[in-house]
Amino acid sequence: MNTRTAPRFALLLVAIALLVALPAMLTGCGNTTTATTAAKTSGGFKTYSDPVYGFSFVYPSGWQIKSSDNAQVTSGAAALYTLGAYNPRGASAQGSYIDVMEVQLYALDASVTESMRDQIKPKVQDLFSNLEKQSGDWKAIGQLTDVAYGDLWGWKMTYSFTVKGTPSYTTFYALFHDTMEYQLLVQASSATWDGYKSIFDTFVSSLRAGASSSAATTASTSK
């Protein structure tokens, strides 16, 4: 668990599944999460505090929360937990909501710190480059950017693409804390993207990490 050599990082990054390989689309079915803090901020936001994994964030009071366990993505890696917030009055296509904010949790096989950023970044860049080659209509907007929010650090990348015929944008965040990776996605149709900027920025900057991977995995199996 404490191995921190470069070859170990190569294996570690292979396990980092690229959530943006699929657009985030939430339908009316699934598990609706009610474990939220009811108090609103002056800006009309609620705070979600996860009772199992301990992370938290704020989201608009008019949006709805949905969660699922053990979500699978195209790389074959399994997320410990997936949770999305969506605007029920926002853009939709063929019965799926497009205006979405999402969090996926992944347990890493080693602890990472921000001092390792320079070692990890080239591998993250390679993952995104491979995504662009394989994803058809996905087009990168700008470059991979270093970010840090509270005790989380990592990178973000923005893409344009089409969701069921609807032109859209998404910004993908790969954020790290100890032995956990938080994959965040904010997504909206291109017609409404600019209007969501302040909401998306508030959501991402408000995220606070929860338990380490060992504690989170134990919590997951004991539910």
Question: How would you describe the overall organization of this protein?
Answer:
The protein is α+β, with helices and mostly antiparallel strands and 223 residues long. The protein has one domain (6-221): Mog1/PsbP, alpha/beta/alpha sandwich (Protein Transport Mog1p, Chain A, 3-Layer(aba) Sandwich), CATH 3.40.1000.10. The chain is 21% helix and 42% strand. The chain contains four helices and twelve strands. The strands form three sheets. A seven-stranded antiparallel beta sheet has the order 1-5-6-9-12-11-10, with helices on both faces. Helix 1 packs parallel to helix 2 (117-134). The two termini are 24 Å apart. Residues 1-42 and 70-76 have low confidence and may be disordered.
Principal-axes geometry comes out as globular
Number of strands: 12
Summarize the helix and strand pattern as letters: HEEEEEEEEEHEEEHH
Number of helices: 4
Q: What do we call the CATH homologous superfamily? A: Mog1/PsbP, alpha/beta/alpha sandwich
Helix and strand arrangement:
Blueprint: H1 6-14, E1 31-32, E2 36-40, E3 45-49, E4 56-60, E5 64-69, E6 81-86, E7 92-93, E8 96-97, E9 100-112, H2 117-134, E10 139-149, E11 152-163, E12 166-189, H3 197-206, H4 213-221
Antiparallel strand pairs: 1-5, 2-3, 3-4, 5-6, 6-9, 7-8, 9-12, 10-11, 11-12
Helix pairs in contact: 1-2
